[in-house]
Specification:
heterodimer; A: 383 residues; alpha+beta; Aminopeptidase; 2 domains; eight-stranded mixed beta sheet; 37% helix; B: alpha/beta; Spore Coat Polysaccharide Biosynthesis Protein SpsA, Chain A; three-stranded antiparallel beta sheet
Chain lengths: 383, 331
């Protein structure tokens, strides 16, 4: 076990001195609404924190990302990122509940905790007496989720003049998450429309677009999905109609195809296009498919020093690693050949629900893990 | 008859000079420097009774933002009336000093009520300024303290700063009605309009958030129940005049809604305190001095102005005193 890993349990204890500051950042980041594409207020909050921490080059770029640099001593740059956007609308209740052991409410895990740790990172490193040689580029990314398609991170990476040597993405849950590979993915929407059939006799009945939409779903689920390379088709939502007694004329299906193989993602995509065309030809309806997000698989090696460092630190903190590929920010970094990891910060439950919750105590383990892993990465890129 | 025009002028002037918006005090560093220069110590008191759902968040936000990051507040104390839930355990776990009201000044006994906790805080806490904040606020934010203590820090002549909240549920562009909750609008504001017209300048006289200098707190009595805020305003007004007050717009306050039955109890307690004050001020037999002008408020942007309405409740005598009536019905 390395020296940095051995220090991690001590970090965990020291970080408890920042308990209220960390939790206040979680509460405030949670209670600011930040739906994808409307993240301005939370980005302003984050950059205000960067200003208070005395960071350099604080900016909000054209994509709305909030960024700042904690200067090191070398010309190397480590990017630490957390996505700012949440799945919830502005009109939703963003009030957070606080008990002695947990926090609960919309977005508290995904990704207010990540944003809070990003905002607190300069203070965390100062408290632990850690001075990195590399510059630490802190980035709150916008337009990450759903149709946002990692827009903020992609914009930053496409336009920054900084050479990013390593990346670390923060996700609220779950502690133990270790992602160092990204999956190939397409995310899209199938829309089926049908002209209204006019007045029908009351006893004639009818399913409207539900029939063809159902046929499409059945056909998609019959597409071959190999276990190796791991491949899955996820149907996220089906919507059609709005009442009891009117046949719907429009229906939508949202889906995601994930695979470790880009060729398989492409093959499934082509098969889905054929299903759509076939349905359109056989049914009296119009069917179309729109792809809203796409990722390409990428990875660093299991033996890569960053992966080994993260595992070492987890081992020291008695955290069981859960290795899982990612479709989030990490894939944009790996796409560009930047060796990167995604780590989780605490344990939680009811993800993506109004009662999403996180446990407080494991946060200190999660943050100690981040600090020690950053030290490892810092040492590696200067070796 | 009270000089309505003169009262209006006093209120207009006071609204101009002593009504703030919390945004005016955004610069915490400047506020801390002014506090240190003035040599002031600030205590934050949160009176509680079974507030486990909201107390943790309040303590986390205040301790992080106003003690750890910006040292504006010197102590945060929760004074509890005997909660059956985990209020004190949670508050203590996040760094607040916790007290049972019954344990403070035991020689004076214990009376269950919020006013008791506020009163005992004067003895227990050490600040030159005590800022009281209720524990049931869901959208807690540092402004709930900074907005109240800032006028006291910057202006030595101000002694008592009261919060108010703009609560426009819905309004179109321009002017909107402004004011307090139901008990304020249907009980306290009419009473103040009648007996203490200048006090109608307080947009929300019943708000549970206020900051007060110790020398003021130690010279006024404390009703232990619902009447504490109303009687404070009357007592401080009697001793120091309207100029001793300021008020700050803290924007929205989200809290649990009270039932009409609970509001009835509150109104009953307030009315008792109010009548006690009338008696102690020898005003019970001075009814002819009552004003006929009812004062409400409207707001445009962050500017507040009075809306005056003369309401004279004339009366008809019993019908059996009218000659025509007596003749018609051979009485």
């Amino acid at each position: 076990m390395t020296d940095f890993a051995k220090r991690a349990p001590g970090y965990r204890d020291e970080l408890k001195r920042l308990k209220e500051i960390l939790l206040a950042n979680v509460v405030m980041a949670s209670e600011i609404a930040s739906p994808t594409g409307e993240e301005e207020e939370l980005v302003k909050y984050l950059t205000d924190r960067f200003i208070e921490a005395g960071l350099n080059s604080i900016s909000i770029d054209e994509a709305g990302n909030g960024a700042a640099i904690l200067n090191g001593k070398s010309d190397k740059n480590i990017l630490v990122a957390a996505h700012i956007d949440k799945i919830w609308d502005k009109a939703d209740d963003h009030t957070i509940g606080v008990s002695a052991a947990s926090l609960s409410g919309r977005g508290v895990a995904d990704n207010s905790l990540g944003v809070a740790v990003l905002a607190s990172l300069p203070l965390i490193l100062e408290e632990l007496g850690i001075e990195l040689d590399a510059n630490l580029v802190l980035l709150g990314t916008t337009k990450s989720l759903g149709k946002g398609d990692l827009g903020g991170m992609r914009f930053f990476l496409d336009n920054t003049k900084l050479g990013i040597d390593a990346g670390l993405c923060l996700e609220g849950i779950d502690l133990g998450r270790l992602s160092y590979s990204s999956l190939g993915m397409i995310r899209g929407k199938v829309t089926v429309t049908q002209e209204s059939g006019g007045e029908k006799l009351w006893y004639a009945g009818g399913a409207g677009v539900i029939g063809p939409l159902n046929k499409i779903i059945e056909s998609i689920m019959r597409i071959d999905r190999p276990d190796k390379p791991h491949t899955s088709i996820l149907l996220g939502s089906v919507k059609a109609g709005s009442g009891y007694n009117v046949s719907p004329t429009r229906g939508t299906l949202r889906f995601e195809v994930r695979s470790e193989s880009e060729e398989i993602v492409e093959r499934i995509y082509q098969e889905m296009l054929e299903i759509i065309e076939e349905t359109q030809a056989q049914e009296a309806c119009k069917a179309e498919m729109e792809i809203v997000a796409r990722r390409y698989p990428g990875a660093i090696d299991f033996k890569h020093p960053y992966v080994k460092a993260a595992r070492d630190v987890m081992d020291s903190l008695e955290v069981q690693p859960r290795i899982a590929p990612s479709t989030s920010e990490l894939s944009a970094l790996l796409d560009r050949g930047i060796p990167s990891l995604t780590l989780g910060l605490t344990t939680g439950e009811h993800r993506s629900s109004p009662i999403e919750s996180i446990l407080i105590d494991p946060i200190f383990t999660g943050v100690a893990q981040i600090a020690a892993t950053l030290q490892h990465i810092d040492e590696s890129i200067h070796a | 008859m009270i000089d309505s025009e003169a009262t209006s002028q006093v209120i207009e002037k006071w609204l101009d000079t002593n009504t703030y918006h919390h945004g005016e005090f955004w610069d915490l560093q400047q506020l801390i420097e002014a506090k240190e220069k003035a040599g002031l110590k600030i205590s934050l008191c949160i009176p509680t009774l079974n507030e486990e759902k909201t107390i943790g968040k309040e303590i986390i936000i205040f301790k992080s933002e106003l003690m750890d990051r910006y040292p504006l507040v010197d102590e945060i104390a929760v004074i509890d009336s005997g909660s059956k839930d985990k209020t004190l355990e949670i508050a203590g776990s996040y760094g607040a000093d916790t007290y049972l009201s019954a344990d403070i000044l035991p020689s004076q006994g214990f009376k269950p009520g919020k006013g008791e906790n506020l009163w005992k805080a004067i003895y227990q806490l050490t600040g030159d300024i005590i800022c009281y904040v209720d524990a049931d606020i869901k959208n807690i934010h540092p402004r709930f303290v900074t907005g109240l203590v800032a006028p006291l820090i910057y202006r030595p002549e101000v002694h008592y700063v009261k919060a108010f909240y703009d609560r426009p549920l819905a309004f179109s562009e321009g002017i909107r009605p402004s004011g307090g909750g139901r008990v304020t609008e249907i009980l306290v504001r009419p009473l103040f309009s009648l007996f203490f017209p200048e006090l109608t300048a307080m947009v929300q006289p019943l708000s549970g958030e206020y900051a007060v200098r110790r020398e003021v707190l130690e010279e006024i009595p404390f009703p232990i129940g619902y009447g504490v805020e109303t009687s404070h305003l009357i007592d401080v007004y009697q001793k120091r005049g309207l100029e001793a007050f300021a008020q700050t717009d803290l924007e929205s306050r989200v809290h649990r809604n009270q039932s009409t039955r609970d509001l009835g109890k509150m109104a009953f307690g307030i009315l008792q305190s109010f009548i006690n004050r009338l008696e102690s001020l020898d005003m019970v037999d001075r009814m002819p001095d009552m004003s006929n002008v009812f004062r409400q408020f409207q707001a445009e942007g962050q500017r507040y102005e009075q809306v005056l309405k003369e309401i004279i409740e004339e009366e008809r005598p019993p019908m059996n005193t009218i000659d025509e009536y007596l003749k018609k019905f051979s009485r």
